[in-house]
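Notebook B, p. 112. Complex prediction, attempt 2.
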Amino acid sequence: MQIAENILQTEDLSVFYGNKQVVTDVTLDVPRNHITAIIGPSGCGKSTLLRCFNRMNELIPDASITGKVLFEGQDLYAETVDPAEIRYQIGMVFQRPNPFPKSIYDNVAFGPRINGFRGNMDELVETSLKRAALWEEVKDRLHASALGLSGGQQQRLCIARTLAVEPQVILMDEPCSALDPIATLAIEEVMRELAEEYSIVIVTHNMQQAARVSHYTAFLMVEDQRIGILVEYGESRQIFTNPTDERTEAYITGRFG
Amino acid sequence: MARYEVAPGVTALEKDYSAQRRMRTRVIHERIARSVLFAFSTVSVLTTVGIVSVLLFEAIQFFQEVSPIEFLTGTRWTPLFASKHFGVLPLVTGTLLVAFLSMLVALPLGLLSAIYLSEYAPTRLRQIVKPILEILAGIPTVVYGYFALLFVTPLLRMISEDIAVFNALSASIVMGIMILPMVSSLSEDAMTAVPSALREAAYALGATKLEVATRVVVPSALSGIAASFILATSRAIGETMIVTVAAGQNPNFTLNPFVPIETMTAYIVQVSLGDAPAGTLEFKTIFAVALTLFCLTLIMNLLSQWVVRRFREQYE
């Protein structure tokens, strides 16, 4: 498998909630400036795996991990690493749009402000909104509440908000699951453009979406009570047309899940 | 239309009849329920109307003898003395002084403890601390009054000899402690109601716990927090026992917290306890004072409703 330089890597990564293991021994390389999709049936640990990359699992009491996660070759979970600093470089877009109950402008400016941005904020807000393909729709009402936007617009706002802190990686946790097909296509278009500059990891339960936008695909599943097993990982073209593992084939052809 | 179980052999017509009967009883039940509920809600409305009319009726009699202008602008309140003055301002300043100072204690402490409980405390600790805080709200206010007079005042007098035995400061501090749980509990409810998706969004942008609390949770819960502040202020304005016991009964027109003062509520207690015979002008003063107090708390309540509506933030 030909893979570009890796920005994120996991080595024998397992995640536990209390005694329950929800990701099992996953070893995975995420290439720089590409879109990597994680697919699999509900409850297979896709989101949990994604949340290991920006240490969001730590917000859940009694979650723990074993194994390693490397970001640019550095151990993400080393004691000297500040999780807030990590999340500044590895942004995240969530399943449901979650704009702050503030103005559109303040939503985008939130991250730069808390991170002590000293530059032209107006310009940064404009660039971020343009990259998220939202600028034209909101440029005349930047100071209106973000909650007045439609679901698809809110989700693009959340992407703009993430872009404003200029991360290297963007994690997307089923970003279109609460959106209609047109809004979904708009987001996918944004993702394709962003992949030129950013590394994107997207969790999706929509296989067509994974096939449409991603360069690489990882397939996770639950087997014999073991949750979060990485079955197959490779170029999306190959995974969706000629999977090597029969379980992958069964899943993508719709025989289960 | 719903189907009903009927005995076998019952004709279609009879079935219809039984369904109709059930329908009718249900309609009657609904009517009874509605009128009973209406009656109960009317009772509370009528009580309010009754109180306001008594206040107005007596106060109007009072204002036939004392001009409202003198009442509202005079700075001497001596209705029980030989030389009578009916300026309510010393009572108003006394009330507002105590309310203001007690809020100075309750607001910061209440808000900080709410932030701690909602954002920092482990669930177990919150489950223990919150009920304890709420017990504070259940202590009879007369106990707080004597706590102020017999414990806090001596402490204050150890710091400075200039502080009188009866003073506004001691009563205010203790009243602040009394309303603190109210501020803390209501604000904490408002903060806990902020969806965790908003917290996650902020964490994902590299926010620290403190930034999440101060820049996301508190602003999002602002309407609830503001409402708790205003409710607490109303409570402080209307509070009676602590000020009666610990703040004195000297209607001084002053903002000095170290000297005895008298609040509107404390004055009403003083007269009700029998200093003035019923029916006299002295006695009627309490209705005028009560009406003033009523207007003050009414304004606070309207303000609170306005604030809640104005700053209500929807989350989705």
